[in-house]
Amino acid sequence: MPCTCKIGPSILNADLSCLADQSNHLMECGADYLHLDVMDGHFVPNITFGAPLVKCLRAKVPNAFFDMHMMVSEPERWVKDMADAGADQYTFHLEATKDPVALIQLIRQHGMKVGIAIKPGTSEKELLPYIDQVDMALVMTVEPGFGGQKFMSDMMPKVEFLRQQYPSLDIEVDGGLSPKTIEEAAKAGANMIVSGSAVVKSDDPKTVIMQLRTVVESWIPKWPTT
């Protein structure tokens, strides 16, 4: 299947006191999915939220696709909880698990799609043994753990390599994505765009989402197809 553009605002940048309202508003503004950053204070030095919040949010935002970005140690521990809370996709970091294959199987057993992520210091080639078993690969374009960081252009060769090798793969980028940086990501081959501050903090998120989508869709016909 050919790739399609998908824009996923990171709700970490939203006002957590009215997260459900803001999440619904982002979906109404054209978001394709919501990106939920889960941090445990161990794998990354920040702490965000866990399954109880996800469960509450699912009740208030029933139709959104929840992409869980699990920036946690021992990601195996939270698969069942996130599935029970209503998560749709469980994206774990390759660096955080000793047995990626078993974790992928566990996620599938709990009815979720599988994403696999790498930090800036990890080679994209370390993903290759697992690409055929997952639904999406996430190339971090900042160091995970905090929002508002500067987009790392030097991560784009990773995206380009994956796109050349896997023309139909969903490739997500996360960190510093905005109308100013989207051209680089789209040219390299990213079709799933996580955007935090640029969308969520905007006075007109609908327009920003449209801008991001327009650029990505302009590049999709230029990507390899076989």
Radius of gyration: 16 Å
Q: Into which percent range does the helicity of residues fall?
A: 25-40%
What share of the residues does DSSP label as strand, in percent?
15-25%
Structural category is: alpha/beta
Strands, count: 8
Mean pLDDT over all positions = 96
Give the spatial strand order of the biggest sheet. 1-8-7-6-5-4-3-2
Biggest sheet record: 8 strands, parallel
Could you walk me through the main structural features you see in this protein, from its secondary elements to its overall organization?
- This protein has 226 residues and is α/β, with parallel strands linked by helices.
- The protein has eight helices and eight strands.
- It has an eight-stranded parallel β-sheet with strand order 1-8-7-6-5-4-3-2.
- β6, α5 and β7 form a beta-alpha-beta unit.
- α2 runs parallel beside α3, α5 runs parallel beside α6 and α6 runs parallel beside α8.
- It is globular and about 40 Å long.
- The mean pLDDT is 96.
Quick recap of the structure?
With 226 residues, this protein is of the alpha/beta class.
Structural key phrases:
alpha/beta, 32% helix, globular, eight-stranded parallel beta sheet
Give the secondary structure arrangement, pairings included.
Blueprint (H helix, E strand, L loop, with lengths): L5 E4 L9 H10 L5 E6 L11 H10 L5 E6 L7 H7 L3 E5 L6 H10 L3 E6 L17 E5 L15 H10 L4 E5 L7 H7 L3 E4 L1 H4 L4 H15 L7
Helix pairs in contact: 2-3, 5-6, 6-8
